[in-house]
Amino acid sequence: MENYSAWLYVLILLSAAFAFLPNGIFSELQLSSNKKFYERLGVKLIQKLVQNGTFANNAIHKNDPQYKVIKNRAQAQNYLSTIAMYEHYHLACFVFFGLTFIHALYQQQFVLALLILSADVIYNVCPILLQQYNKLKVMRVLKLRRD
Predict the structure, then answer these.
(1) Distance of alpha carbon 75 from alpha carbon 142, whole angstroms
(2) Which one has a higher pLDDT value, 22 or 91?
(3) Is the pLDDT of residue 1 over 60?
(4) Which of 60, 66, 110, 147 has its CA 20 to 30 A from that of 53?
């Protein structure tokens, strides 16, 4: 059992290191600068279902027609910081789940590996894609407002 504990600590430390990467690294990790790329991957569906997504915002908007997620340039800049925080978190979790997936494969625990991989896609890959998509949208709005 101690062998598993040692592996767990190593995996946690390796994945935590990704949480402390500088923000500039995340621009390099952006998969595409084209919104359509993300839309083809299903980001619009993900966006509908998440905590502050389309369904939730529409419900709020019914009660408060003036409601906007981002009202001005300062909020847009703050939202980019929030996106960076989410990206750091989900990247660290993605690495942890990925490493535990590999470890489960190595241990020949294939059902566990499949469960971990499925959870990684749902819990980390989908949010990372959504955050990259949101970042493109916010940056586009900021650029348009400069002109």
Answers:
(1) 10
(2) 91
(3) no
(4) 147
Cβ neighbourhood burial of 6 (10 Å; 0-12, 13-18, 19+): exposed
DSSP line for the chain: -HHHHHHHHHHHHHHHHHHTS-HHHHHHT---S-HHHHHHTTHHHHHHHSTTSHHHHHHHHHH-TT--S--SHHHHHHHHHHHHHHHHHHHHHHHHHHHHHHHHHHTT-HHHHHHHHHHHIIIIIHHHHHHHHHHHHHHHHHHHHH-
- 135 and 52 Cβ atoms separated by less than 8 Å: no
pTM over 0.90: no
> Tokens in use for 88?
């750091």
